[in-house]
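Sample entry (308 residues):
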Amino acid sequence: MNGHLLAWKLTGKSRAALQTLAVCGTWEEAAARYGTTQAAFRRTIDAIARGRGLTNTRTLMHRALQDRQLPRPPVARPAITLVLADLAVWRHLVLDVPDTALEEAVALMTGLPRGFVREALVRLRAAEDEPGWRTVMRGWRRGVLTTRSSVVVLDRGGMGPRSRHRPAPRGLPVDRLRLVPDARAWRGRADAAVGDGPAPGSVVVTGVDCGLLRVAPALCRQLLERTPADQWGPVIGHPDGNAALLVTAPRAMAAGWRAGEGARMWRAGARLALPPQHPARPGSMYWAVSCQAPPWRATGLRTLEGAR
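Predicted structure, serialized as tokens:
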């Protein structure tokens, strides 16, 4: 059930309970401020969530902020040191699944390995015992979560999104950012011999396993248009970051190398979980150009300097 289709019908006490939870750091603190026991306070919050067709407090808090049932916190954007994959995990904290199923659901929706998701969930907490709804609140304060962050309701049994659309055939990932100018050329490249780059689905360290060049989508299309298809290297589409990530040889270009404002090499030592070979979930990273292609070399990237 989509919570946006349901009207908020909060009593004065229910609204006060939700507002209390939003400004407290723990269940114990919220119950004490509300003037009741933890068990009774949790029952009140659970009833509000059920009235919205939701199953957890993380999603409830996000939906309340989206629908202005709670005042939205001012956004402060300090320098974010998390890698893109960590940010993808943060944005998927609002999945409407029980906390015990969150790790599996995030891995399913993002295409990231479960081990990486487990570690990212730990990294994202401000404290070891921080409840999930507090991490969601911090996501709003950091600008990671916004009104555009959609809530996906997953089937309770099959752990799949409720959708009437047929899934894309396996092996034909959707190029959601339209990075590749000629889909027929990409399919021909998918049959190439396996390159010497990192394996799909693995966690890589830049400067050691490979290099990553972040490129604006329009600049990526120009690069692929100017480069013969048989010389393309792997390209990752990243919808969350609205960018293409070109997988290069580890030291193809110096760390920090730039081509204007549209292309920049990632710093050495950054970690990224590569997407699996055939991800098909909306919003997840995907291979716009096959992971089977050999990594980009410096000679193939120099054309970016003239593509600005």
